[in-house]
Design a protein that fits this description.
It contains 6 helices and 2 strands. It has a single domain, classed as Rossmann fold, CATH 3.40.50. α4 links the parallel β1 and β2. It is mainly alpha-helical. The longest helix is centred in the C-terminal third of the chain and has 15 residues. It has a two-stranded parallel ribbon. The mean pLDDT is 85.
């Protein structure tokens, strides 16, 4: 994954409008983030993810403010780096935060890697589509046995 937002390959924004009231009950400071991060836009999913994200909002905003514009190289961005062990790359098709295309490109560095992109999911795939996530992880784990 590419850390600097300008370096990421992101999908287009959804063209279908979200259902009315899908952000009801979400703290105002979270609404913009969830509008970008979620691909499965429903009140139930938004409430579930809003609770998890709101509970985790204890980050260092000053540090993140310096990190995000400059970015940093992740260990798997070294084109010579390869990992031969099993890897599962799972991503949401509507992930407007990290995208899905860069993860597919990273698959070259994982010769025993599996890749799946889930429609109607964004950045919070495990919470947006828990059944699909469970099935994909279960299939991947069964393959390892």
């Amino acid at each position: 994954m590419r850390i600097a937002p300008a370096d990421r390959t992101l999908p287009p924004s959804p063209v279908d409008p979200p259902p009315p009231g899908w952000l009801d009950g979400v703290p105002p400071g979270l609404a913009d983030h969830l509008t970008t991060a979620l691909g499965h836009r429903s009140a139930a999913v938004t409430t579930r993810i809003g609770e998890v994200v709101a509970a985790a909002l204890t980050g260092d905003d000053d540090f993140l403010g310096r990190l995000r514009p400059a970015g940093f190289q992740l260990s798997d961005e070294d084109s010579a780096a390869r990992y031969g062990g099993p890897v599962a790359l799972l991503t949401g098709r509507q992930d407007l935060v990290a995208g899905y295309a860069d993860q597919f490109a990273a698959l070259e560095r994982y010769p025993d890697g599996a890749y799946a992109v889930v429609p109607a999911a964004g950045h919070y795939l495990p919470l947006e589509q828990p059944e699909a996530f469970r099935d994909l992880v279960g299939h991947w784990l069964a393959r390892l046995a």
